[in-house]
Design brief:
five-stranded antiparallel sheet; 15 helices; dCache_1; transmembrane helix; elongated; about 600 residues; single chain; nucleotide-binding; transmembrane; alpha+beta; two-component regulatory system
Length: about 600
């Protein structure tokens, strides 16, 4: 804690709170805002690339539809299905011209971006047409290209897109042709040669800031499109191409370009990877502006808050110092009143309350000792009355049952049992109603318990022995009178609800440690559920005066032990349903701590 006066500490704490709040709000706001901006830029890249993939695939699929008129033409199927025959060269020539006029010209007129359309049958038939004049035309190289195209085109008859066409600067869109619509017996190959510049009109409108750009690479790493025309047709570096392929659908960085982020999406239709790139410095420019604004605003707010904290601290400290002076005078016995500040606020009300307190203290101090002595005397008398009242509690129900047994035996026969019952009952009554002893020896408590057992064997109709395992040297230990028998009686009432069987057992044991004496009553009866055990422990903590049936119950025993020996002593109960109960009396081992006598 900072040393010095209250004003300095208040100002210091205000500074800490204000600075911590400003820094926390500023840093959190900056962090959240910058994170949101990063997410927006990444979402923007993903959206741009997704749109480019969608538009490109739609554009290419339009040419797939353009091939249907050729695929379904009877002229084409007849030309491709006829057998090679040198004598039919003139017929091939006629069919070729008809295909050009009826099919190829329509395709070329409707799609001016197509430079060349051709059809090559496996039977040697060839037909081709051009939108522009191509001279000289290398027929040998074209035949070799067709042979390679037979291998490269898809076997399911779908459109195949090749980024390097027969003509320079063109794409090849080709597919195999069958003799029927649904047949897989292919008879030839047809294709378009389309200028790749036509596709650039789809991509050149993509804007990614001042330094951002968009490019496309094929599945072999060749650059198909790039804003820099010099890079079109070049091969993407090996590590960079691997990064593009392995980071599809997420933001990543390319090797050798650490100041840029990229987003790649693979087109299943064309087989290309479309990639968008943006400069990190350009992306972070709004974040830097946000950071600068946050710092300036935070510093300005902090300075204003510090000034207000200083003024506020002084307004509190000044009247507090007045109170401090008045309290010091009161401390040395001079009952001094503090003058009001005149502001009529909480401080004035506090000072007024202090002055009233001084007046009352002056009157009450003289009465404190007298009142304290009276309270102590009343408390002692009340504890003595409670102790004697608790000692005199006897279970009427038990006495009534015992007397009924005596009457029954007296009516039926004269025997020594009546004498034994009456003698045991007489001893128990005399032992119970004595009020001159707050403590008794363990031996006396055991004797009282054995008289109770003598009566109980007649009530249960059979012999029942209590296993007493107390070492002889502990028999003269002191304990509170009339505490052992209620615990044994509690076992008969609750531990054996279905009657006493041969296997039932009650064990009484005792031991000492350095400062405490423990006596336990343990049975192998029905035990208690966890809920019932918790309720019993809670009742003992509240020091219940008596059990629910009016007997000298566990709460009574616990309360009397605490009244004689102190609050740290008493009963502790351990039980498990179906596994018996163990009740431990905790008392001091040496000497008598007579709490009641002061």
């Amino acid at each position: 804690m900072m040393k010095g006066g209250m004003a300095r500490r208040i100002y210091f704490y205000f500074v800490v709170v204000i600075a911590l709040t400003s820094v926390t709000v500023g840093v959190t706001g900056y962090w959240r805002s910058s994170k949101e901006l990063d997410n927006q830029y990444q979402a923007l890249l993903a959206q741009i690339v997704d749109n480019a993939v969608h538009q490109t695939d739609l554009y290419l699929k339009g040419y797939e539809r353009a091939t249907l008129s050729i695929l379904t033409s009877a002229l084409v199927k007849d030309a491709l299905s006829s057998k090679p025959d040198k004598s039919k060269v003139s017929e091939f020539y006629v069919v070729e011209n008809m295909i050009k006029q009826q099919l190829f010209q329509t395709v070329l007129i409707n799609n001016p971006e197509i430079t060349m359309v051709y059809l090559a049958g496996y039977n040697g038939f060839r037909a081709m047409d051009f939108n522009v004049q191509v001279t000289p035309f290398n027929y040998k190289a074209f035949d070799e290209y067709i042979e390679q195209l037979k291998e490269d085109t898809r076997d399911d008859g779908g459109l195949t897109i090749q980024d390097s066409g027969f003509l320079d600067g063109h794409l090849t869109l080709a597919r195999k042709v069958s003799d029927r619509q649904t047949s897989r017996m292919f008879k030839g190959v047809m294709g378009f040669e389309m200028r790749i510049n036509e596709l650039k009109t789809l991509w050149k409108g993509i804007r990614l800031g001042e330094t951002g750009y968009f490019f496309i690479v094929n599945d072999r790493g060749k650059i198909i499109y790039h804003p820099d025309n010099k890079r079109i047709g070049k091969q993407l570096a090996g590590r960079q191409f691997e990064a593009v392929k392995s980071n599809t659908n997420r933001v990543f960085e390319l090797p050798d370009e650490p100041d840029r982020i990229f987003f790649s999406r693979h087109s299943d239709y064309s087989g290309w990877n479309l990639v968008a790139s943006m400069s990190l410095s350009e992306q972070r420019e709004p974040v830097a502006a946000l950071r600068q604004t946050t710092i300036y605003v935070g510093l300005g707010t902090l300075l204003i808050a510090l000034y207000l904290a200083y003024r506020f601290g002084r307004s509190i400290v000044k009247p507090v110092r007045r109170l401090e002076y008045g309290m010091r005078q009161t401390e040395i016995g001079q009952w001094t009143k503090v003058p009001l500040t005149g502001s009529h606020d909480e401080m004035d009300r506090l000072i007024s309350s202090y002055n009233t307190m001084v007046e009352r203290l002056e009157e009450l101090v003289d009465r404190v000792y007298e009142t304290e002595l009276r309270n102590q005397e009343h408390l002692l008398k009340r504890q003595l009355a409670e102790f004697q009242s608790l000692q005199l509690q006897i279970n009427p129900h038990f006495l009534y049952n015992t007397l009924e047994i005596i009457i029954c035996y007296a009516v039926i026969q004269k025997s020594s049992e009546i004498k034994e019952i009456v003698r045991s009952l007489s001893y128990m009554l005399r032992y119970s109603v004595r009020t001159d002893l707050e403590e008794i020896t363990v031996a006396n408590e055991l004797k009282h318990m054995m008289h109770f057992i003598a009566i109980m064997k007649f009530r249960i109709g059979r012999e029942f022995e209590v296993d007493v395992r107390i070492p002889p040297e502990l028999l003269l230990k002191s304990m509170v009178r009339l505490t052992l028998q209620p615990l044994v009686e509690n076992v008969f009432k609750h531990a054996f609800p279905d009657g006493i069987e041969e296997h039932h057992l009650i064990i009484v044991n005792a031991w000492c440690d350095q400062s405490d004496f423990y006596l336990t009553v343990e049975d192998n009866g029905s035990g208690m559920s966890a809920h019932r055990l918790a309720a019993l422990r809670k009742s003992l903590r509240r020091s219940a005066d008596q059990s629910t049936d009016g007997s000298i119950g566990l709460g009574n025993v616990h309360n009397r032990i605490q009244m004689v020996f102190g609050a740290r002593y008493g009963l502790r109960v351990e039980s498990k349903e179906g596994d018996g109960t163990r009740i431990t009396m905790h008392m001091p081992a040496a000497g008598t701590k007579k709490v009641m006598s002061g």
